[in-house]
Design brief:
Helix content of chain B: 25-40%
Distance between the termini of chain A: 26 Å
Radius of gyration of chain B: 18 Å
Strand content of chain A: 15-25%
Distance between the termini of chain B: 32 Å
Structural class of chain B: alpha/beta
Helix content of chain A: 40-55%
Largest interface: A-B, 26 and 30 residues
Structural class of chain A: alpha+beta
Radius of gyration of chain A: 33 Å
Oligomer: heterodimer
Number of strands of chain B: 10
Number of helices of chain B: 8
Number of domains of chain A: 2
CATH topology of chain B: Rossmann fold
Strand content of chain B: 25-35%
Order of helices and strands of chain B: EEEHEEHEHHHEHEHEEH
CATH superfamily of chain B: P-loop containing nucleotide triphosphate hydrolases
Strand order of the largest sheet of chain B: 6-7-8-3-9-10
Bound molecules: adenosine-5'-triphosphate, magnesium ion
Shape of chain A: elongated
Number of strands of chain A: 10
Largest sheet of chain A: 6 strands, mixed, barrel
Order of helices and strands of chain A: HHEHHEEHEEHEEEHEHEHHHHH
């Protein structure tokens, strides 16, 4: 039998039972659509995060105390044993590199803030005046920490937008006194609300000079040093300089970890990419279920058309011809299901983009291809057994069936 | 050379513990162009014999030569080719594909043989005309009468110009008048050179054949050849 005839015969067989065909196509389509929509969502989230991080500036190097073997973020790089303190002097020393333009030491702790009888928990951030430049932060009122010796513990504070609202309401906070732990600080500025961005969220923070924070938490070591390189191309050289400077200061020991935005980005990219794949995998399970449905429907079809198969054999159809006809039918049904699913999925992704415009929810090409491919593969895979059963039918018994 | 040569044919069906001897030491020789009827009580093995002749079934033992060729040793594909090219089947229940039109049903053997669509179309149109079905070409089987359905089935069975036409109770589902019409059609084909073997329960129809075979318990018990004169003597 010619290929074109096999195709036409299979098409006629599929359209000969519209309800069965529609149900099967629908089952396949839902599976494929699930893959397309869920990967669109996952990839949208990934692109959103990558975009947000990219906006933070890509010439940033983050210095962490402690050595970690990998470049990216992992649990180990966050909890490493610290052999030597990362001090304010270390931070200042980094400015000696010609490729470093700004630094901002960072110390983070928890404390209580009170003003006018109101009290709440806050995150206290000790840093320096260049923080706003390094992390591209904006102020809503007043000014940021003054430029001064990093060892001077001035009692001034810049508060986040939420803190301002909860402690002072609509009244201006600049100039007011607040109590942080057992010290009194004068509010000199209020940070602009961070919004939903994924960057540093300052809304619930109180920012004070790093020396004040070191004293408050009674420590010598910094949590991080943020270093701004001259530009993106100087990033690698800046990292080498930083490593050299710290090694010299730490008696030849390389006990710091350097993170760059790229590494952080890469990590997020990887995590969210993996997540998208996992989601696609889960959605693909529904395709396997659809495949089993294809098999059952085709088996029923073989049973219903037993007499027809017997007739074809009597008319001289080879077993291969019959197998191909049924396999083609299963493939056609899954192809139709796959295409309908892609259309459905693209529609769903468009709705997602409409509902959440911030997420660029476009299904990745690989997901569309994988969805279609899996649909076709499962259709063929699960079509093989019914087709073989049809090809093996005994013609006399098949003809006797009514 | 005989068209069909059967010798020592045994066909045994096993049903659980019991065995059914559907055919026992059957020997038969049929020349090209003959017209045979096969009669006998129900269960005597008529259909089993016909299926065997049509290569739909294999004997447990015995020889079967078709046009001088030993066909029992052929593989499935070769047997399919023989069925396609040399044998036509007509069934009691017509066996038309319900979703296909009369023309498409008639075209099935040509399609299976890989004949190009254009040639198929011409041959099917000619066949439908020969069988008086030209204005029914686009009708589906459920839009045809019983007689028309069997005519479509006969057109399909002969479209490949087979040497052997096997009919298992072709008039069994038809009323008397229609049955006679179908019988005449088959006889015309036989007159055109096709070897015709008809299984029937109808004595009148059986008697029309030039050679009548009678079966009982899987054996051929009678093989009656009659001259055309006899045909008129035994109505
Ligand atoms: N597939 C099978 N399995 C078991 N027994 C079978 C099978 N096919 C036929 N038989 C048995 O073989 C014998 C001959 O059957 P067959 O169909 O050839 O009879 P028949 O002469 O055509 O009868 P009828 O006139 O009723 O059509 C019967 O006893 C039947 O029960
Ligand atoms: Mg029978």
């Amino acid at each position: 039998m010619r290929a074109a005839d096999t195709l036409r015969f299979a098409t006629r067989a599929a359209t000969g039972n519209p309800l069965r065909t529609v149900l099967m196509v629908l089952a396949m389509a839902i599976g494929v659509a699930a893959v397309v929509v869920l990967t669109a969502l996952g990839d949208g989230a990934r692109r959103y995060v990558v975009g947000e991080f990219g906006a933070l500036g890509s010439n940033l190097v983050i210095v962490l105390p402690g050595r970690s073997e990998t470049g990216g973020i992992n649990p180990g790089s966050l909890v490493t044993s610290t052999p030597r303190d990362l001090t304010v002097e270390d931070a200042e020393a980094l400015l000696r590199s010609p490729r470093v333009t700004r630094i901002a030491p960072l110390l983070v702790g928890n404390s209580e803030i009170s003003a006018g009888g109101r009290l709440r928990e806050v995150v206290v951030v000790g840093t320096s005046s260049d923080m706003t430049a390094v992390r591209r932060l904006d102020l809503a009122a007043g000014r940021f920490l003054p430029r001064e010796d990093l060892r001077r513990a001035t009692n001034v504070a810049v508060i986040g937008a939420t803190i301002q609202r909860e402690l002072f309401g609509a009244e201006p906070a600049v100039g007011r006194l607040v109590r942080l732990g057992d010290r009194r600080f004068r509010v000199i500025g209020v940070m602009a609300a961070s919004g939903q961005g994924l960057g540093m969220n300052t809304d619930e923070q109180v920012i004070i000079p790093v020396a004040s924070a070191l004293a408050m938490f009674d420590t010598n070591t910094l949590f991080r040093i943020l270093v701004e390189a001259r530009d993106r191309s100087a990033l690698e050289a800046a990292k080498a300089d930083i490593t050299d400077i710290i090694r010299n200061r730490h008696a030849g020991e390389e006990d710091i970890t350097l993170l760059t935005q790229d590494a952080v980005l890469e990590t997020f990219d990887r995590i969210l990419g993996t997540l998208t794949m996992a989601v696609a995998g889960i959605a693909a399970i529904s395709l396997a279920v659809a495949g089993i449905l294809v098999m059952n429907v085709m088996l029923v079809s073989v049973t219903q058309r037993t007499a027809e198969i017997g007739l074809l054999k009597a008319l001289g159809a080879e077993p291969r011809t019959i197998r191909n006809a049924f396999l083609t039918e299963a493939s056609l049904l899954s192809l139709a299901g796959g295409l309908a699913g892609v259309a459905l999925g693209q529609g769903g992704a468009a709705l997602l983009r409409l509902a959440w415009p911030v997420l660029p929810s476009w299904p990745p090409d690989w997901a569309v291809a994988a969805g279609l491919g899996t649909a076709l593969a499962t259709g063929i895979l699960f079509g093989v057994q019914p087709a073989r059963r049809a090809a093996r039918l005994d013609p006399v018994q098949a003809l006797a069936k009514r | 050379m005989a068209l069909i040569e059967l010798g020592g044919i045994e066909r045994i069906f096993t049903l659980g513990d019991s065995q059914v001897h559907a055919l026992q030491s059957v020997a038969l020789r049929v020349e090209a162009g003959e017209y045979l009827s096969v009669m006998g009580p129900s269960g005597s093995g008529k259909s089993t014999l016909l299926n065997l002749l049509g290569l739909l079934d294999r004997p447990n033992a015995g020889r079967y030569h078709l046009e001088g060729r030993d066909v029992t040793t052929l593989d499935a594909d070769e047997q399919a080719a023989v069925r396609r090219e040399r044998i036509g089947f007509v069934f009691q229940s017509f066996h038309l594909v319900a979703r296909l039109s009369a023309a498409e049903n008639v075209a099935l053997p040509l399609m299976l043989a890989g004949v190009p669509a254009a040639e198929r179309h011409a041959r099917v149109s000619a066949a439908l005309r020969d069988f008086g079905l030209e204005d029914r070409a686009g009708h589906r089987p459920d839009q045809l009468s019983g007689g028309q359905r069997q005519r479509v089935a006969i057109a399909r069975a002969t479209i490949m110009r087979p040497a052997l036409l096997l009919a298992d109770e072709p008039t069994g589902n038809l009323d008397r008048a229609t049955g006679q019409e179908v019988t005449r059609l088959l006889e015309e084909l036989n007159a055109g050179g096709v070897t015709l073997i008809v299984v029937t329960h109808d004595p009148a129809m059986g008697a029309r054949a030039r050679r009548c075979i009678r079966m009982e318990d899987g054996r051929i018990v009678d093989d009656l050849r009659q001259t055309p004169a006899d045909t008129f003597a035994n109505p």
